[in-house]
Amino acid sequence: MTSSIKYGLLITGICISLAGRTQHPPKDPYYKHFSGILDTSMNITFDLQAKDGILNGFYYYFFPEPGNEQILHYGKTIPITGESSGSKIILSEFSNTESRFEGTFDRKGNISGTWKQNEKEKPIPFVISEDYSKGSIPMKCYTLTDYYTIKTESRIYGKPPRAKIDIILLYPDLGRGTPLKDTFDVILTTFLLDEIVFLSSPNVLLEDMKFDFFTSYKNAMEGIENYNPSALFNWDKKVSMDVNYNENNLLSLKIEKYAYTGGAHGIVFTEFIVINTKENRRVELSDIFRPGFDINLNSMLEKKLRNLNGIKAEENLKEAGFFEESISYNDNFYVNNDGIGFFYNRYAIAPYSAGTTELFLTYKEIIPLLNLDHPFIWGTRE
Asked: Domain tally for the chain?
């Protein structure tokens, strides 16, 4: 593979079509961590999730320096989305659908085939397989979708009011009593139930969330005699989980909660969690940065914020629509193969109309702030 093709993958999309005579696609829903080889020297890694035939996830690649296997060049993490039908899967980068992977499942669940940058290019062979050997962990996907409909003899205009809940939960595929499972239980139930519960099964968490939501809905609707088509009487709750990174004993998760219980709009809240799967604990910023990092990190983030919004250095952030005259880091951060991102929910630093804010720093940018024993060796090597 020529160097121009290798570097071209940084900006091209990726599309996978999986078909063949002997196919054993994984059962939907699922989360899978795949790794493999493109051509003879390009390493590729996928984190893929599937539900109801809809696919999403991330992709990145790396390859060694020609003549020096110790120096690796990494491509950027690329968000991908797509769909599946039967044994066929189609994935593409959000902004580019020209490049394609076409392959088939074998009996062991490996996927092999060819990649083409576009229809004019010569196909290049690839093979990927489910792989948890590099400090990643297997996870199962649990889902729940249910409705509760108000039954009443009172006059109803249009459809009866209802509450709907939709949950996608990722949970480590581990045995009971393992330290990592207990860590997950504490983190997830605290965020989703506001209490600590050690789960006998992840399905218990789903049922508890459904029970709490439907009970709140029934209590709120009690005593109302006449309903109209207004959305005020229809409640919605959605919870989803995604993997940002799952290697090198680091698991970075995104948990998103949406709720509509009447009013002008629903509320979305996103929580990012980074777990050290070797030490069975949540990663804190003090594990990443050396003491006294505050001022420099805040300066980096404010510079990113200003560049993102076109605010000059001499302009006041408050006058530009933010709540404060300066910005500070928070504990709502994620990691991926490229660096660390800080996420600010609506109302955190700006009004609802401003939306959410995401500020990303590459590993090369934060090298001066890192602890000597930071966990990002792959991203800071020259």
From this structure: 3
* Three-class secondary structure assignment of the chain: CCHHHHHHCCCCCCCEEECCCCCCCCCCCEEEEEEEEECCCEEEEEEEEEECCEEEEEEEEEEEECCEEEEEEECCCEEEEEEEECCEEEEEECCECCCEEEEEECCCCCEEEEEECCCCCCCEEEEEEECCCCCCCCEEEEEEEEEEECCCCCCECCCCCEEEEEEEEEEECCCCCCHHHHHHHHHHHHHHHCCCCCCCCHHHHHHHHHHHHHHHHHHHHCCCCCECCCHHHCEEEEEEEEEEEEECCEEEEEEEEEEECCCCCCEEEEEEEEEECCCCEECCHHHHECCCCHHHHHHHHHHHHHHHHCCCCCCCCCCCCCCCCCCCCCCCEEECCCEEEEEECCCCCCCHHHCCEEEEEEHHHHHHHECCCCCCHHHHCC
User: Does 265 share its domain with 172?
Assistant: yes
Task: Please report which confidence band the pLDDT of residue 138 belongs to, taking 50, 70 and 90 as the band edges.
Answer: very high
The model's pLDDT over 211-237, given as tens digits with 9 standing for 90+, comes to: 999 999 999 988 777 666 566 788 999
The residue segments making up the domain with residue 105 are 3-130
User: Rounded to two decimals, what is the model's pTM?
Assistant: 0.86
